[in-house]
Amino acid sequence: MQLFPWSTLSLSLISLVFVGAALIIGIAGTAMTSTADRLADLTGLGEAIFGAVLLGSATSIAGITTSVTAAVDGRAALAISNAIGGIAAQTVFLAIADIAYRPANLEHAAASVENLLQGALLSTILSIPLLGMAGPRLALFGVHPFSPLLIGAYLFGLHLVSEARSQPYWMPRQTAKTEEDVPETHSGPNRSLVFLWSRFLLLTLVVGTAGYVIAKTGGQIAVRTGLSGTVVGGLLTAISTSLPELVTAIAAVRRGALTLAVGGIIGGNSFDVLFVAFSDVGYRSGSIYHAITDQQVFIIALTLLLTGILLMGLLRREKWGVWGIGFESFLVLVLYFGAFTLLLAGG
């Protein structure tokens, strides 16, 4: 049952609503950053864990809503491409944040064992949808067994990240350009935890509602323009619903919360893989893993490639790079836009 007759609106009006929802996501995402930074300090969770789990999941609400809504509507290509395409787009956003941070290469300054573990976790769980697609056609009540496995692997990975923060057996060498995650004394009004959590949850609700609108209008744009669900999901809706990650990453960098910026992107990317599991539950034409096409495999492979390059950047810790950004950010930008140019050229 449709809550709103989207199909009755003109393409121009649909496009206008799409842009409006994207702007709302951007504004609400910006407001999340200062709240998240305060909560990371006051709760003692630290920027890496708070960024990965709470900020990453909160800014992903729009993407979850988009993918699950698309899956319920039977648009498997849009659901998968939005989920994985959002991860690729957010990795590009980290490269943009690197450009915004002038003192040094962002991956050098924000290197931490938590961020490295989150990158390894992301690479690991990204392989699960590929295994589900290529493996036997299994489904219980329309849900593939790999969906709960995906959620379990993510939760176990978070446990490892949390353990590494409390009992680190390895840590990056400190340099003059390394920015440690040290709780700050914040100026301004002394907000209570209840107020901060309430504000954070309210902003999450706003972002989720805007994500639902993005899903509905994005699906209409795909149908009316003749673009494939992969292109619309991997580019249009993925970038739009990932705007919170872009604005929170740049805002965090501007505030000097570098670990929050990197942890929010990498940890949020790991959470975004769960969109596939959630979409599998919403997709009622069988398991959504069996609806993955070559184009979605291409996007998953691209995302694995970008994540591997990012991990190399965190390990190599180049202080200065091409045009003021690290080699990993330069390669991420070139490969991302080159890959989607190929997808567009191929229809």
Proportion of residues in β-strands: under 5%
- Sketch the major β-sheet: none
Mean pLDDT: 79
Give helix and strand order, one letter per element, not per position: HHHHHHHHHHHHH
Residue stretches low in confidence (pLDDT < 50, at least 5 long) are: none
Secondary structure tally: strands: 0
Count up the domains: 1
Examine the coordinates and then state which fold CATH places here, giving the name of the CATH topology.
A middle domain of Talin 1
The class by helix and strand makeup works out as mainly alpha
Distance between the termini: 31 Å
CATH architecture: Up-down Bundle
Q: Briefly, what CATH class?
A: Mainly Alpha
Number of continuous helical runs: 13
Write down the Rg: 19 Å
CATH superfamily name?
NCX, central ion-binding region
Helical coverage, percent range:
over 70%
Q: Report the principal-axis shape.
A: globular
What does this structure look like?
- The chain is mainly α and 347 residues long.
- It has one domain: Up-down Bundle (A middle domain of Talin 1), CATH 1.20.1420.30.
- Helix content is 74%, strand content 0%.
- It has 13 helices and no strands.
- The chain has helices spanning 11-43, 47-59, 61-72, 76-100, 106-109, 113-134, 146-166, 193-225, 229-241, 243-255, 258-282, 294-316, 327-345.
- α1 (11-43) runs parallel beside α10, α6 (113-134) runs antiparallel to α7 and α10 runs antiparallel to α11.
- It is globular, with a radius of gyration of 19 Å.
- It starts with 10 loop residues before the first helix and ends with a helix.
